[in-house]
Structure formats: C-alpha cells, structure tokens
Amino acid sequence: MRNRLMHGLWPLLLLAQSLASAANLTVGVLGLEDDARYQQRRLEYNYPGHPGGRALEGAALALDESALELESVGHKLVVKNFLAATAAELPKALAQMKAAKVHYVLLDLPDAELKSALPAVSAALGQVLLFNTGSGADELRGAGCMANLLHTYPSEAMRSDALAQYLAARNWNQALLLFGPRAQDKLQLDAFLRSAKRYGVKVAKQSAFKLSTDPREREQSNVRLLTNDKAYDVVAVIDSEGEFARGLPYNTQWPRPVLGANGLVALAWHAQWNLNGGPQLSRRFVRAAHRPMAGQDWAAWAAVKAVVGVLTEAPKSTVTEQLKLLRSGQVALDGFKGPRLTFRSWDGQLRQPVFLGHADGVAAVAPFEGVMHPTEVLDTLGVDEKESPCKARP
After folding, report:
1. pTM of the complete model
2. Which of 211, 255, 288, 343 lies at a C-alpha separation of 20 to 30 Å from 129?
3. Is the pLDDT of residue 9 over 90?
4. Protein fold of 158-267
5. Which CATH number applies to 2-154+270-352?
6. Helices (DSSP H) in 72-105: which residue ranges?
7. Where in the chain is the domain with CATH 3.40.50.2300?
8. How far is the C-alpha of 209 from the C-alpha of 253, rounded, in Å?
9. What are the two backbone dihedrals, phi and then psi, of residue 6, each rounded to the nearest 5 degrees?
10. Runs of H (alpha helix) within 137-273
11. Over pLDDT 70: what percentage of the chain?
C-alpha cells in the first residue's frame, strides 16, 4: 500500500523538486511613458504598420505559452515592465532593471531614443541579450549594430525588398514615388530606392508631398495633382507618419494601385493571416490583449520565443553562449509564418517572411517564387552578408 502511494506521489515530488530548483530569469521590457506612438489619439488612427499597443502584451503571451516548456528544463521566466517617464529618466529605469537582475531586454523605444539609449543600456546592464522589437532602422543592423543586439522586427530594407519583389513579380515596373518631409521618410525612401534598383523597378517620377494649409504649398498636398502623370503602373508612398498615405487609395488621378505606407503594406504580422497556425496565435493575442496583433506585438512575442528556444536547447548555457547559439542559427523558432526562423550571424536580424497585406488580409508573402539566393532564400529580404557594414560579432 505504501509503495503504491509513493509511486503515485513520485511524479508530484519530481515536479515540486523541479519547481524548487528552477532558475528564475527575468525579461525586462524597456519603454517610455510619454512615447508618442502610444498616445491614445495616435492609437485610434490605427495606421497600417504602426504599433497597436505596448510590447509587453506580446511578450506576456509568449511567456504564458512557454511556462511548462521552461519548467521542464529547470527554468522559470518572468516578464517585467520598466517605463521611464521621459527619455531623460531612462537611467533610472536602467538602474531598476539592474536591481531586478534582468537577463534579457526587449527595447520598446522610438527610433531616436533607441539609438541614443543603446550604449547606456549595455553600460548599465553588462552582458545581457537585447532585442529590438519595433524599429526598422537599417543603421541598427549596419554601422550602428551591436554584438548583443538582436532584431525580431524586420528592417526597412527587408520590407522595401518585399514590396519591390512583389512589383517585379507582377511586372509593375514603373512606379510613381511620393515621399514625405520627415527624417524617417528619408531613410525609408533610401531603402525603397535601393530595393527598386535591386529588383529592376524603375521610378518613373519622384515627388515630395507636404500636408499644409498654406495655399502656396497646395500642389504638395493635392493628391490629384501629384498623381496626374499617366506614365506609371503603381503609386509607392513613403509616409512614416501615415496621415497623407491614408488619403491616397481610390483618390489618385488615374486608376492605379497604391502600396508602401497604405494600400498594400509590408508587415511583420497580419491579424488575418490564415495559414501555419496564424489564426490560433492571433486569437490567443486578442483574448489576452483585447485588440488585434500588430507586427510589433509579433516581434515582442518572437523575442521571448527566441529566449525560450535557447534556454530549452542549452539549459545551462551562459548569456554569451546563448548569444552565439542564436546568432549562429543553431537555435530556430516557429514564428507561425511557415519556415523555421533563425538569426543572421552578420547583423543579428531574424530571417522571416514578410507579409504584403491590406485591410482585409494578406495578398502575398515575400520572398517570392523565382527569387534566387545561393544559400537561404529568406536572405533575399534585407542586407545580405557581403553587403553588410556591421562589424560587431559575438
């Protein structure tokens, strides 16, 4: 009788022992309370490709999905939110992260603040894994790269390559290019021009737009005037803000499709993706966050999944060893996009398909059939190894 009782209790005792000895590891999500991307009015605009909410929600979902998997290898992961009131108070948030012994950091910061904060993050926290979950800035994968900085959000180059591949596949080879006045628009413009050249798309005409009530500048905000030339197949709009691009579809002078910042948009995730387990992931997120999953949410979810993957693959590894495993491609994750996803060794970018989506669904997925690469077709999206100016390696 006693033996039967002990036999029945033995799995519970093993589980209790496992939980008692689990290593407690912390994922910190670093953000700003005054982040303009999350102002209520801004979220209500719901511009395509813009975040729909804080990165914490995607990270928390990934943790909830992975708790038992981590326990099986003797680890317990927690996600904590660290919000600085303003960019000037980021050092205080970093001190809190250090006191909390954060091992992995999800960077949920606007581009300018992210670039300026990276050296301070490394100096304050030492050897930790950093994940960029919301910035597409190519500079962060190029001259401004860091050995311990990984990117789960696709770069501007990846998203513009996806659009250019689509145009080439459809034989829409003449593009009218409209671009805005902001510094971010200039970076996106450079990325699109690079991609257009790479895939044989000709820019028939470039025109700057400017939203203004000044009658002297009306030509720069009048959609009919800007699209009056007939010699193009498609309108490509570069608008990091989103307001001008929203008024383009169905308002051009001639019946032409619109892509870029509106119309057909290159996205890390689309809530209507209906393959590879996508509907299940999107439904789980809606239940948890009470809103659709956006690309930035997916990137935060993927970052925690990458941490879970390396911890289960090598439970006793150090952070340095984990970084090498991830950047060498030895650890892959299921991103619910089809292929297994790995990080590039040369710039820390997560290889991934890019969705080309509109309001109601996904029209296509890049890379496209027929696009060739000597080793990995996903590397046709973004800056390839021989092109990369990144010199930081783990």
Report:
1. 0.93
2. 288
3. no
4. Rossmann fold (3.40.50)
5. 3.40.50.2300
6. 90-99
7. 2-154+270-352, 158-267
8. 15
9. -65, -35
10. 156-170, 183-198, 223-226, 243-246
11. 94
